Amino acid sequence: MSPILEINNLYKSYGFTEILKDVNVSIEQGDFLVLVGPSGCGKSTLLNCIAGLEPITSGDLHIDGRNMTNVSPKDRDIAMVFQSYALYPTMTVAKNITFGMKVRGVDQATQDEKLAYVAQQLQIEPLLKRKPGQLSGGQRQRVAMGRALVRDPKLFLFDEPLSNLDAKLRVEMRTELKALHQRLGASMVYVTHDQIEAMTLATKIVVMKGGVIQQMGTPAEIYNRPANLFVADFMGSPAMNLIPAKTRAKGGEVHIEITRPNAEPIILTDANNGDLPQDVIIGVRPEHIADANAQNGEMQAAECLIDIVEPAGADTYAVMQLGGKHVTARLSSETTATAGVAQKLTFDLGKVSYFSPETGLRLN
Amino acid sequence: MADFSVQTSNAQSQAGKRALRWGLYLMLGVFAIFYLMPLFVMVMTSLKSLDEIRTGDLISLPREVTFDAWRTAWSGACTGIQCEGMRPYFWNSVLIAIPGVLISTLLGAMNGYVISQWNFRGANIIFSLMLFGCFIPFQVVLLPMARVLGMMGIAGTIPGLIFVHVIYGLGFTTLFFRNYYVTIPSELTKAAKVDGAGFFRIFWSIFLPLSIPIIVVTVIWQFTQIWNDFLFGVSFSQAGTQPVTVALNNIVNSTTGVKEYNVDMAAAIIAALPTLFVYVVAGKYFVRGLTAGSVKG
């Protein structure tokens, strides 16, 4: 079976400015692909290229095996949900949802039947006679979703659909969207700048920066094995600690030396990564630094002076100075860590990443 | 002590505010009278007989109200050798203004839609050039326009006048609609494209229904311009196709001997009534529509 969406060597420029450079993406039927990156990274442009709303400068694009590179949006068998929802303001909710079918000349009975089905799925039956101006943000969001669902397309495209909702509603809609994806088994491409949204929704993530794909993989791959410093820093909250360190090989093991202000450097021993350059940046997720009492064979302990303690309910974040950087540890809420007092912490070296300070690329 | 002084200054500022308020009303009242006086004089004069005008006071109320002058102005007053009153010319103006307004508004809406929502190379240059058209004085285009109308074979006809007004109004109507449509997010067009709608479908089903306020503004503006126009009317018409403004001029200027002020005044009011009517009916939409672009809809 051919991939539902396949993009090969796609370039996109406006005049002399290259927006997208050599983009290659391929997803299977039922995948939930999330394009994530900071604003201006080209993720929305890529989505518009997939939709056919922006012409491609070079490269080609296939949807379900058909070459769609020069096909107009209406013939690509896609549906799209926009950030501003883009509901037609003068039409009722029902008319908004059926507009696409009306344009395509679908008969009235089928229209009514599909409208009823979608309205029931999204629980918007009481809203059908209202105009978009009379709806709340969350309701508009649902209607926009309904307009896409009713088409039953090969590919759903979402352009930051949750970013205009308030925080609580955003989490609710996120869960609902995930449930919808699982129920329908549909293929989706979703653009967001919110890395938590990306992690929770995706079956496959593409991290972009400056029009170039930085890494493509499952959420777990992206989170645990970031391909470079940018991905490591961008994905995860609080961000991965990126600490400059020096290494010394010693009989198949590596000693990693991290400097501290007004104290001896921390020396950690990594038995699994023998082949490292002298200068590295070591990437440690906050949850891989823990209180020393939670013992594990691969973990190594060190006394660290805690600067700030931030209780956050379920977890407590402790901030310290290591290698000239602020380093955050995610401790349990029962921790005894106190600001200004040294605390024995363990580092889980089995899960760290090493990056080259020169190229920023992953080393292990 | 401190409290006391605060109270007196409060009382003073209260009195000051009241004085200011009354001053404001007085000024507004004076201006209102100033602006309304000519209309008052016109209406009063049109209701008097010629004898009364000659003997009476300009601003006095008529001793005896008579509509003779109105009747004469409508259907009996002479323009040169014809004595048919304003009636035929009034209908000429209607026949020019209504198609002129409709065509220029529709084309302006289409232009604005294309320029604001369908980004194409040179869209801004084309818009700037159309905008420039708004600032070209009437007199400049008279001779070239006469040539063009001649070549098209519609010189001196009502379609010719409609054509002139549509061309001249296009700059303004395009400006109105373009400024209204740039406030509409481009995602709306994109959504419609994905839904399968084409260029005209999006225009008819989505943009025109959104445009009621700006359509009202454009219609008032164009109607006023076309109805009140004199220069194009006098330049590009011939006997039988003259608009009401030209007829008014001819009635007032071609009297022999006695100057019939009452007829002149009645004729002038007849010529002005339609624009007055449009303002009264749609005036509030006009103000609302002019500011519509600046607020989120």
Brief descriptors of the model:
heterodimer; A: 364 residues; OB fold (Dihydrolipoamide Acetyltransferase, E2P); 2 domains; six-stranded mixed sheet; five-stranded antiparallel sheet; 8 helices; 20 strands; 23% helix; 37% strand; elongated; B: mainly alpha; MetI-like fold; 0% strand; disordered C terminus
Description:
The complex is a heterodimer of chains A (364) and B (297). Chain A has eight helices and 20 strands. By secondary structure, chain A is an alpha+beta fold. Chain A folds into two domains: 5-234, P-loop containing nucleotide triphosphate hydrolases (Rossmann fold, 3-Layer(aba) Sandwich), CATH 3.40.50; 241-355, OB fold (Dihydrolipoamide Acetyltransferase, E2P) (Beta Barrel), CATH 2.40.50.140. In chain A, the strands form four sheets. A six-stranded mixed beta sheet of chain A has the order 6-7-8-3-9-10, with helices on both faces. In chain A, strands 13-12-11-14-20 form a five-stranded antiparallel beta sheet. In chain A, helix 2 (93-103) crosses helix 3 and helix 2 (93-103) runs parallel beside helix 4. The radius of gyration of chain A is 25 Å and the shape is elongated. In chain A, 40% of the residues are buried. Chain B has 297 residues and is mostly helical. Chain B folds into two domains: 2-66, no CATH class; 87-294, MetI-like (MetI-like fold, Orthogonal Bundle), CATH 1.10.3720.10. Helix content of chain B is 75%, strand content 0%. Chain B has helices at residues 2-46, 50-55, 68-75, 87-117, 123-134, 138-152, 158-181, 186-194, 199-210, 212-228, 231-235, 244-253, 261-290. In chain B, helix 1 packs across helix 13 (261-290) and helix 5 crosses helix 7 (158-181). The termini of chain B are far apart. Residues 293-297 of chain B have low confidence and may be disordered. The chains are: A alpha+beta (364), B mainly alpha (297). The interface between A and B is medium-sized, with 23 and 18 residues.
